[in-house]
């Protein structure tokens, strides 16, 4: 069953063609990898999928509750449709506690990010007991419970990345977009992330799309991989197919 279709999607920034005529189809429950050199358009695609950017042309259709989304939904509406994401540069509420960060996730909608950047909201703010318990459960699952009262900024890099994923899951998404989740992680943390992503998919019954430069992580956990180069989708297939694709080797894998 398809959960996301992208048809002839393009995004230009003035003369820069960041994404050009991209079409793809993602099935429920898949773990999808987006790879390609720096500047290939991967993050721009995430920004289009989450409504941060408006497409120059083309369309995005989510088929989650049979509600189609095309051009003009705001990011917080997209969150309500069941799309959550993390960012390449971690965007936690650095001066809030670990627990408060997850609680903010339950209130989903990026508009809260803006509010909380300026006003520190305490954890009891409009938080029902069940939400509080669910937040604690997420922290247990992510091995962060003993750090629940620490400020996000004092966590290790790997813990911050995992907290960002936990917060995204609090919004109860159906599709989770992870932008370079292994960036800055050490090999041990990356290995744990490998298991964590697969565990998340099984436990939360999710479709996961990740942008990642760590090829062993991508090849290990993704069922299908889409390869981008200069804004174009240049190849797609299973990890084995991608590893054997001449064009991909030349444009990207060969550089490794
Ligand atoms: P990386 O792996 O380095 O994150 P990427 O594949 O995610 O790269 P994008 O960040 O999507 O690539 O960038 C694609 C192109 O679009 C680049 O040339 C970039 O400079 C340009 N671009 C992205 N966002 C903007 C913007 N807001 N304004 C102007 N140009 C932009």
From TrEMBL:
One of its GO terms (cellular component) is plasma membrane. It comes from the Bacteria. It holds the Pfam family ABC_tran. One of its GO terms (molecular function) is L-isoleucine transmembrane transporter activity. Keywords: ATP-binding, Nucleotide-binding, Transport. SUPFAM superfamilies: P-loop containing nucleoside triphosphate hydrolases. CDD domains: ABC_Mj1267_LivG_branched (cd03219). Residues 4-255 form the ABC transporter domain. GO terms for biological process: D-alanine transmembrane transport; L-alanine transport; L-isoleucine import across plasma membrane; L-valine import across plasma membrane. This is ABC transporter ATP-binding protein.
